[in-house]
Design a protein that fits this description.
Elements: H1 2-20, H2 32-49, H3 72-76, H4 78-84, H5 87-116, H6 137-148, H7 163-191, E1 201-203, E2 207-212, E3 215-224, E4 230-244, E5 250-258, E6 268-269, E7 275-280, H8 292-297, E8 301-310, E9 316-324, E10 328-330, E11 332-334, E12 338-340, E13 345-347, E14 355-357, H9 365-376, H10 383-389, H11 394-429
Parallel strand pairs: 2-10
Antiparallel strand pairs: 1-3, 2-3, 3-7, 4-5, 4-6, 4-8, 8-9, 11-14, 12-13
Helix pairs in contact: 4-7, 5-6, 5-7, 10-11
């Protein structure tokens, strides 16, 4: 009975746990067609996941330099090397440089006192030491700090009876000024770098392809979250895609420029509110022959670069992002984010990344242009159309057509007259 009661309790407990636990969910049985399509979907997901980005969404370049043997070049440009280091290494070097210089010159002051015998005459008031009140290494270290940082408490001072101490004081003062200028300048540049300003420059999560003014266009949106504007802002875009030349040379990650308004000046932005950057897919575009079905199979990446000067500091700022083929949505547009309020315009950044579907041809821009050209062709070809192909003006074309008509009419009248004369002559002979 006890065994049955315990078993029954366990069954009830597990039954209640199955009912109450949200983690245990029985998946419904999929239809046969769905089960057959599931491996294809997994393969497609794996293919999307395997696409390696050249530039991350946050703008970081996914490139690592290996086998760099000429490392002395980093030490040649030591200032830039220190500025590019991470904050923890930069602070460590900052503290280490000051500590090493203080310890080194502290040791030199102690060595001078030791060689002169100042440490043996500490209590002798008749002895003139190199540095007053220096009685050991700790006091020499403190005097080194006071000298290099120009604190000057006045308790430990150098005397005029120590020429080697005067030389060391001059050397430490000069080197201390150089170290201060170098390290403080490095920290100032590190703090004032405009990289963090780029964090407030945002790009849309997806790029879209849809019709605009009768043309197929590739579009993405950029925005600035701060009230202080980016001065002289400009936008660029690059297509990153491997290619093979006609000679058989394979070029990995080939960069092709994407025109986003360079000819018309649209690439220079007045970035006060979010803007939609448009690339017209024409004959010079790398997307000229790419259709919707072709786009899903392409392994490409679009890198967008937004540059400008920070209004507060005047330093150049750069923000980057990228879009792979799965992030380019065909047949969509961006949701408007700008509304007119009472006396001002309001930007709703909650809808910054939102897109909505619109009617868009699934064919490529080249096929779309071919279909449009075929619909504009006339059914019959006249003499005027042939002359227009040869480049004659319309006035000359009309004159040629009129002259041709008159000549035809004159020939027909002359033929009729000749026929009448022939009939009269035949009747007279009869």
């Amino acid at each position: 009975l006890q065994f049955l009661s315990s078993s029954l309790t366990q069954v009830i407990f597990f039954s209640i746990q199955d009912v109450e636990s949200p983690a245990i969910i029985r998946q419904p049985r999929l239809p046969k067609q769905a089960r057959e399509d599931l491996p294809k979907q997994l393969v497609e997901m794996d293919r999307v996941k395997k696409i390696q980005r050249y530039v991350q969404k946050d703008g970081k370049c996914n490139v690592h330099h290996g086998n760099v043997r000429e490392t002395y070049r980093y030490l040649t440009d030591i200032f830039t090397t220190l500025v590019d280091l991470k904050w923890r290494f930069n602070l460590f070097i900052f503290v280490l440089v000051y500590t090493v210089t203080w310890l080194f010159f502290g040791f030199m002051w102690w060595l001078i006192a030791y060689v002169r015998g100042d440490l043996d005459h500490i209590a002798d008031n008749q002895w003139t030491p190199c540095v007053n009140n220096l009685n050991g290494f700790v006091s020499a270290f403190l005097f080194s700090i006071e000298t290099e940082t120009t604190i000057g408490y006045g308790y430990r001072v150098i005397t005029d009876k120590c020429p080697e101490g005067i030389v060391l004081l001059l050397v430490q003062s000069v080197l201390g000024s150089i170290v201060n200028a170098f390290m403080v300048g490095c920290m100032f540049v590190k703090i004032s770098q405009p990289k963090k300003r780029a964090e407030t420059l945002v790009f849309s999560t997806n790029a879209v392809i849809s019709m605009r003014d009768g043309r197929l266009c590739l579009m993405f949106r950029v925005g600035d979250l701060r009230n202080s504007h980016i001065v002289e802002a400009s936008i660029r875009a690059k297509l990153i895609k491997s290619k093979q030349t006609k000679e058989g040379e394979f070029i990995p990650l080939n960069q092709t420029d994407i025109n986003v308004g360079y000819n018309t000046g649209d690439d220079r932005l007045f970035l006060v509110s979010p803007l939609i950057i448009c690339h017209e897919i024409n004959q010079n575009s790398p997307f000229w022959e790419i259709s919707q079905a072709h786009l899903t199979k392409e392994e490409l990446e679009i890198v967008v670069i937004l540059e400008g000067m920070v209004e507060a500091t005047g330093m150049t700022c750069q923000a980057r992002s990228s879009y792979i083929s799965s992030e380019i949505k065909w047949g969509y547009r961006f949701t408007p984010v700008l509304t007119l309020e009472d006396g001002f315009y309001e930007v709703d950044y909650n809808s910054f990344h939102d897109i909505y579907e619109t009617n868009t041809p699934t064919c490529s821009a080249k096929e779309l242009a071919d279909m449009a050209s075929r619909t504009r062709l006339p059914l019959t070809w006249s003499l005027g159309s042939k002359l227009s192909q040869q480049g004659l003006p319309e006035s000359e074309q009309e004159g040629q057509e009129t002259k041709t008509t008159l000549d035809n009419q004159g020939q027909s009248q002359q033929t009729e007259r000749n026929g009448d004369i022939a009939n009269i002559e035949s009747e007279s002979k009869v």
